[in-house]
Amino acid sequence: MTKITNSSKRGFWESSLKFIVEWETKKAIAKQISFLTAIALVFSSFSPLAAFADYGDSLPLPQPPFKGKIGITYKESQPDFPQPIKAPAKAPNVLLVILDDVGFGQTSTFGGLIETPNLDRLASKGLRYNQFHTTALCSPTRAALLTGRNHHSVNTGVVTEIATGYPGYTAILPRSAATIAEVLRSNGYNTAAFGKWHNTPANETSAVGPFDRWPTHLGFDYFYGFLGGEADQWNTSVVENTKFVEKSSDRVDYHITNDLADHAINWIRTQQSIAPNKPFFTYFATGATHAPHHAPKEWIDKYKGKFDQGWDKVREETFARQITNGIIPSDTKLTPRPAEIPAWDSLSPTEQKIYARQAEVFAGFLSHTDAQVGRVIDAIAQLGELDNTLVFFIAGDNGASAEGGLTGELNQIKTFNGVKETQAEFLAALDDLGSPKTFNHYHAAWAWAGDSPFQWTKQIASHFGGTRNGLVVAWGDRIKDKGGIRSQFHHVIDIAPTIIEAAGLETPEVVNGAKQQPIEGTSLVYSFDDPALPSRHKTQYFEMLGNRAIYDNGWVAAARHGRLPWEFVSKTSFDEDKWELYDVANDFSESKDLAQENPAKLAELQSLFQKEAKKHKVFPLDDRLYQRFETEHRPNINDGRSSFTYYTPVVGIPEISAPNIKNRSFRIAADVVAKADAEGVLATQGGRFAGWSFFLKDGKPTFVYNFLNSDHTTIQASEPIAIGKSQIRFDFNADGGAIGAGGTGKIFINDKLVAEGRIAKTVAARFGIDDTFDIGQDTGTTVIDSYQIPFKFTGNLEQVKIDLL
């Protein structure tokens, strides 16, 4: 980071005095201004106090003092144009890749069955870290990764969708914790983010923001991706900078990961074409392999039959490869299957068929993702910049996901609404798994198998199955031990300080006027050249949804709370949780609980957890899940509103910012000026997996309700509306106040009843994840196949009014 040295300070002072004296001696100036006035004019442009400041402590770097000469005219003056900020001479490019929901033992690079040749290739040129940790959940890991601070320290103790009003849980990244992107951008880097963001409060993700916590306001020059926690990989609601990207119906074979790679490659090539002497920072965060598990069929079919042996055997085989390849210590013990997960041999042949196919789909998804990351790496290599690029490839933002439960899922939106799927439904859709027709997830046991050799999975921050992820670091010839393994204990908060040290920068004390919280991570650079050096990351707490652990100098105390990842309600209180003790310096997989043998050490670590938890704003512990999705727990743009009027086509409104028509009566009234054969969407929400749409088809007012892709109800007028001005209205009268109750729907044209129908069941909790609320067109998947996106209304849509009754 650029600094003003003592010698430059002296030189500035001497040249300033000399300039003032010269100026004073000129008769023309002496007649017009006094000596004191001359001093005032000079110092109004650059203050000695500012010049003497240590600029390296504050970002953005201030404009340097003027060092030219000012006369009466340009002929006796000397210009000194401000120069742009430059990164240190040997600062590397940085490529930071993070995948989603990948277990430690799933990639081939870390002993898994699933082929990840590009991660393998990178590992052969760099280092594999086998004791690298995340937070056990998506948003918290990303917040910690980008800021270098613990997740509660930056108010992201849980995912943004279930934020609450406690300091560690608001999901509002503080200005006192600038991102690594902001630090790099302010020091001469070009910065861009691609893919999953998931660090903007859910109520701030509509087209009106506020945009303070969107990527382009947190240090990234450019953003292309999605704001939420998961996405339909075939039909993603994409944002470019702060604008939602309009989708078209002709996107054949579209997949978001390919699209992200295309945009990342184009951005890097553009940046290097225009400013090749300026380093870049590319943050490439795929939505893969988070559910839904979506992949092209040819990738899925590569794994046909490769999981027929079942999760128990897959886990054992993975463990054997991990030992053989030196990925884990040779004395590591494979932890046993939890009682809550069934043995593969206990399943029926039909169940085994279904679950094996679920694993094949996931495997194809992960391999396809690795290929897209490989394309980005290849593009950097083709530019001749790979050896000058510090690459971090983090294989997962937490352990593998067990959120698919003990059957897996065809339509995850059903699970969100408490509706179970039948075995017959799975069999009927088996060939469609991974396609646009499903919103699928695999059986929880595959996640457990994929976290070999550790206990548990995503969400379970108390055990390494939830927090241990594979990390590969490569940096051209700066990494000498190519293909080496590093076993120092590290955490995702260590990446930001590693980048700062590698780039030759300083950690700023002030950024954009905000005094900065201390960086809590520890740089990995010390470990690059010596595998034997002891870890410098000595202590680390873990907490997620009540699951707790503390690491300290080779020991871990852990308390798993009483709710499994596929359950909504905890079965125990915090006081009932059992604490375990592990000597992980000698027990890599946490296989032997020493709590009974060493109660004094356990008590010491429990006390340390309390201290760390208070320090980092972990308290109060909160194990609620389903309840925290309710919007009353956080601000909402619709607070206090029961009437909504839209005066123009509006798209991309997330569910939290849309009128909440669930579990109540409501009215939709559209004022239109119709042409002949008018058609198109008036208003819609959700899509293929749950939702509703109010539209004109062949001029006929139509309302379709899609109950979780199981029941579709269509109410349609028999005659088209007249040419000219009309009001089209849909009234829904709900049956009492029951959750998810049915009701009667009626369509009116200019207050005349033209159609009526019964909607037997309604969605109780969520319409979806990626499909949004739109006026005047449909930007997501459609609730019915009778029209295709965007199905824009062809007449004049003067306004749409929605009233909650």
TrEMBL record:
GO molecular function, one term: metal ion binding
Transmembrane residue ranges: 33-53
Domain Sulfatase N-terminal: 92-504
PROSITE patterns the UniProt entry points to: SULFATASE_1
Top-tier EC class: hydrolase
Entry keywords, A to Z: Calcium, Hydrolase, Membrane, Metal-binding, Transmembrane, Transmembrane helix
Entry keyword Membrane: yes
EC number: 3.1.6.-
Tagged with keyword Metal-binding: yes
InterPro entries linked: Alkaline_phosphatase_core_sf (IPR017850), Sulfatase (IPR050738), Sulfatase_CS (IPR024607), Sulfatase_N (IPR000917)
Pfam family, one: Sulfatase
SUPFAM superfamilies the record matches: Alkaline phosphatase-like
Family, per entry: Belongs to the sulfatase family.
Stored PANTHER family: ARYLSULFATASE FAMILY MEMBER, BLL2667 PROTEIN
Protein name, UniProt field: Arylsulfatase
Organism: Pseudanabaena catenata USMAC16
